Amino acid sequence: MACVAGNCGVSRGNLALAYQAAGRPAEAVPLLERTLADSVRVLGAEHPDTLASRGSLALAYRDAGRLAEAVPLLERAVADRERVLGADHPDTLGSRNNLASVYLAAGRLAEAVALFERTLAVRERVLGPDHPDTLASRNNLASAYWAAGRLDAAQALLERTLADTERLLGPDHPDTLASRDNLAGAHQAAEQLDQALPLLEEVVASTERVLGAVHPQLAVTLCRLGQVQAELGDLASAAAAFGRAVEVDTAAYGPDHPEVATDLEALAAVQERLGDVEAVAASRARARAHSRAGAGVGSVT
């Protein structure tokens, strides 16, 4: 059945968004390329929908690892939105933030930092210091500082972001959990393990309380906690954390998923340091068995 005029592009865009949400950006790209071409032809190069389509395609390029194509497209999107909507329009700020994220992914750290700083300053002025977009900008700038090796500056921003998200959203909001985890990561990167440890313990407790006892994100956080505990020499606690991660990923993904094998290898490394030879052998045998089983999934016989 033929599409009703104007609806095909919407349907195509929705399918592309579904592909991106499912982690399949390479399949989203051709759909978004066609949507952008149709939007330019039907609506014109500077129509708001065309500007949005250009930005969506650029982000799909980014997510697909095609940074060389994402950068010029986002640079054009920023310039177009500044000209059509104004430098302080929320959509312009969003495009500027996305361009900075692509600069960061491409290793163009100085440009990423400068653009994130500019975006944060404008959002604080236009939207206010407590607006969700402002909080996101502060977190993004901290990530750029971190990547550039400016850990002190990153920590200062992340501490402020955590305090703000706790105050505005509550201690168990997903954004608060992410802020706490990011701050713990910054402390870990700076080898400030005594400061990272209580943050990660709190993230584990909050993640389990909010997302549930078998959510994959809980396993990720448990592994982070186990790493810090192992580095601090608390091997028994580290083994317990990695053991729980095995249980969580097994419940979330099934016993043959690669994440389970990875967790088991991390557990075995700690057990080896504890001198528990039998436990090491058992964990590594399970990891090998899961790896073989996982490799066989979907194979043609």
Describe this structure in words.
The protein is an all-alpha fold and 301 residues long. The protein has a domain at 212-294: Alpha Horseshoe (Serine Threonine Protein Phosphatase 5, Tetratricopeptide repeat). 81% of the residues lie in helices and 0% in strands. The protein has 14 helices and no strands. Helix 2 (25-43) runs antiparallel to helix 3 (48-63) and helix 8 packs antiparallel against helix 9 (174-189). It is globular. The relative contact order is 0.04. Residues 1-6 and 296-301 have low confidence and may be disordered.
Which structural class do the helices and strands define?
A: mainly alpha
Q: What is the approximate shape?
A: globular
Kindly report the name of the CATH homologous superfamily of the domain at 212-294: Tetratricopeptide repeat domain
CATH T-level topology of the domain at 212-294: Serine Threonine Protein Phosphatase 5, Tetratricopeptide repeat
The H-and-E topology, N to C, reads as: HHHHHHHHHHHHHH
Instruction: Work out the helicity level.
Output: over 70%
**Terminal Cα span:** 39 Å
CATH architecture of the domain at 212-294: Alpha Horseshoe
Quick overview:
The chain is mainly α.
What's the SSE blueprint?
Layout: H1 7-21, H2 25-43, H3 48-63, H4 67-84, H5 90-105, H6 109-126, H7 132-147, H8 151-169, H9 174-189, H10 193-211, H11 216-231, H12 235-253, H13 258-274, H14 277-296
Helix pairs in contact: 1-2, 2-3, 3-4, 4-5, 5-6, 6-7, 7-8, 8-9, 9-10, 10-11, 11-12, 12-13, 13-14
